[in-house]
Fold this protein.
Amino acid sequence: MTLVLDAPAVSQPTLTIDTGAVTANVATIRARTPGEIMAVVKADGFGHGMVAVARAALAGGATRFGVTSLDEAYVLRDAGFTQPVLSWLNPVDADFAAARARDIEIAVPSRAHLDAVAYRAPGARIHLQLDTGLARDGASPAEWPALCAAARRAEQQGLVTVVGVMGHLPCAAQPGHPANEWGRRRFAWGVQVARAAGLRPVDRHLAATAATVSDPASHHTMSRIGAGLVGIDESGTVRLRPALRLVAPVVTVRIVGPGTPVGYGHTWSTPRATRLGLVAVGYADGLPRSACGRAEVLVAGVRRPVVGQISMDMFVVDLGPDLVACPADVGSPVTIFGSGEEGEPTVADWARWAGTLPHEIVTRLGPRLRRVVVNSAQPAGAESVSNSAQRAGAESVSNSAQRAGAESASNSGAEVPA
């Protein structure tokens, strides 16, 4: 039997993005380092909306931006941001001339990239990228001296300006892991090699969020903060504020008897008579199917289990037989995740249930979700609604970037890595 009662109290699945949380998170992290904060707003601002997150990060004290692709960098320029923007993951045949024309700084991980930038975008500002232990992006130690020497020649010819050296720690989420010490030493050596070649990079950045909050020895003139903007600290060092809340209405309530199989594959059956609520959010909207059998939601003030398989467009929640214990009805709001302050699950909970990272949860959220941007630091009612992950028409933001001169003492006494 399906019950259809009062009109829905919540009209559709809604993802609320709190930019006030982003601003607060940047301020919290900024207090832990003397260097500049680069707000990494790649992947549509970690699924929270690139332009909204960028603006909120500036309000918290960030002075520049980092992205992977050039197309992401252009979104910021199109929105009116004039702060420095660094793009660090591009193929050799990328349109570096267009990047130069739009004043985008470019990471150079290889000699081939250096030659391409120098040839196609003379005068570009570049950051040499050193592999500090991940064996993915960045020049290897064997290639580094030659890359620095070539960059210096290109600089003397007026083809590039080397403004930065960058690396990335492999195990920063695990403070004290020996790979981080090794990475710090390799980076310090890399800076020394660059200086010996005659380069004078003003920007030296190794630490991302986890290292910035947990490892002062990794701090240089700048830190790259991405996941931390939206409340994620894998190291568990600081308390940051989650910036997302996903709520959807109960579509129908079904009363069933014991032994009723639920969902595809009949992987779960009711152990007793109960009420089943249907919620129109599924894996097409970003919920991980791998969380089946473990996930919970908050409805009518209590945690209730998600049962059966999460489908493309929906999931089922066991409301239980007791209307007093869980007085949920059609239209009752179901909080899928939020800050956790009201007992609801968090993004971190969903990541744990799915056996993945919070980063994956927030960056997989689909375009069908109605998006509402609010600022908890402003009076109630100051919000905007967007049906896409990016907010167009952003006003121009003045360039207030100032380069910090702080550099970690870990730059001294470096050893050449084996």
